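Bumping my old thread because nobody answered last time. Still need a sequence for this structure:
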């Protein structure tokens, strides 16, 4: 399969490097000609989980310099860039070629709507990677790429793309891609986004009553939208539906144990969105909590806390607010004032925050 990776950042660089090291020819599309020249001079280096390697790069150029005929294009930019560059990519695909976006959130679903599900295969990454210098990447976990038809079900092309990419990185195929998107989205919306706004990890913010309540409210809203949309979120670290859930989280020992498991899986990672704030980069909020709000509106499911988080993230990006735990209290007070009939928050219980160490 003639393969192009668009975006030589943390994930794209890692995937391209591991494929090249396995003898799989890969071309790299960079944002500009300068970056392409740098990568051709430096080659790609990988360290961390899965072993170190160094490979030369011969084919690197901006997207517009490629002539086309690719069987597979792995789109590995951030969400906003993906939506911007994607409409140019079908022109680079050969007959029967496939575009594989691997962003978090709703990007693959949106691109399948925009470009046609026959051109777009769904991708998600549970691989963790960081770019430590141009051309140098660190693999941070033993994760995998997940690939599946956006409309669901099995397909020969998903298997074929999975086998091809599996030569370099672990790649798994799912018949329930939409469910997999939601499983990750639930954690991204309630963990990554709240963590970024609070300025800390999931474990840190859920140790405070406001943080614990925010987690429950955001998760409940997102899960209600997912289920109403017909998605069947897949089990990742935990069952995506908390024990005793009845449209809202119900405080119980079983729910505390569920959250403790969530914390074990995701509690200590620095939220990538917090890194975006620190680097002054655009966030992916519109494709995470923003997707929950937009779909909730279509389905008639209220999502006030997710909507407030989206606004807050945009305000932080614009420099009008700074991340901090105080922002969670502000969002919660506003949502209680708008809906005083809700009574006591469903997820708050006296005593120490479950799972906190
Ligand atoms: N990194 C992880 O561990 C991880 C894990 C799971 C999911 N993800 C998801 O994977 C996606 C990529 O994340 P990442 O961490 O790899 O991001 P990243 O390090 O920022 O890499 C994105 C790369 O794409 C480049 N780019 C942007 N627009 C481009 C264009 N038009 N043509 C060619 N290249 C372009 C960027 O260049 P500039 O630097 O010039 O902007 C950057 O090198 C995100 O959606 C993220 O949420 C990442």
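Sorry it took so long. Here it is:
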């Amino acid at each position: 399969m003639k393969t192009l990776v668009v975006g030589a950042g943390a994930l794209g660089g890692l995937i391209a490097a591991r494929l090249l090291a396995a003898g799989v020819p890969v071309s790299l599309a960079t944002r500009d000609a300068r970056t392409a020249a740098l990568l051709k001079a430096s080659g790609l280096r990988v360290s961390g989980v899965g072993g170190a390697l160094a490979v030369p790069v011969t084919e690197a150029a901006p997207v517009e310099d490629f002539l086309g005929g690719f069987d597979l294009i792995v789109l590995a930019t951030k969400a906003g860039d993906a939506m911007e560059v994607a409409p140019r990519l079908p022109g680079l695909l050969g007959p029967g070629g496939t575009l594989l976006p691997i962003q978090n959130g709703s990007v693959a679903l949106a691109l399948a709507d925009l470009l046609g599900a026959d051109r777009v295969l769904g991708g998600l990454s549970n691989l963790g990677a960081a770019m430590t210098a141009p051309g140098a990447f660190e693999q941070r976990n033993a994760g995998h790429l997940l690939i599946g038809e956006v409309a669901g079900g099995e397909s020969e092309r998903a298997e074929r793309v999975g086998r091809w990419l599996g030569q370099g990185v672990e790649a798994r195929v799912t018949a329930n891609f939409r469910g997999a998107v939601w499983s990750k989205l639930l954690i991204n919306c309630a963990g990554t986004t709240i963590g970024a706004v609070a300025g800390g990890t999931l474990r840190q913010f859920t140790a405070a009553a406001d943080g614990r309540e925010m987690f429950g409210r955001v998760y409940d809203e997102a899960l209600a939208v997912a289920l109403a949309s017909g998605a069947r979120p897949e089990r990742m670290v935990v069952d995506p539906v908390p024990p005793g859930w009845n449209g809202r989280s119900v405080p119980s020992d079983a729910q505390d144990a569920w959250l403790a498991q969530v914390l074990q899986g995701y509690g200590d990672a620095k939220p990538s969105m917090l890194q975006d704030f620190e680097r002054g980069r655009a966030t992916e909020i519109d494709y995470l909590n923003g997707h929950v709000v937009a779909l909730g509106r279509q389905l008639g499911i209220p999502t006030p806390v997710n909507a407030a988080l989206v606004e807050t993230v945009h305000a932080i990006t614009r420099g009008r607010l700074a991340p901090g735990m105080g922002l969670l209290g502000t969002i919660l007070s506003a949502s209680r004032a708008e809906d005083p009939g809700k009574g006591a928050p469903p997820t708050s219980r006296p005593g120490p925050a479950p799972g906190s160490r």
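The pocket of NAP is lined by residues 6-12, 29-31, 63, 76-79, 81, 85, 102-104, 125, 128-129, 131, 284 (CB under 6 Å). Let me know if any region looks off to you.
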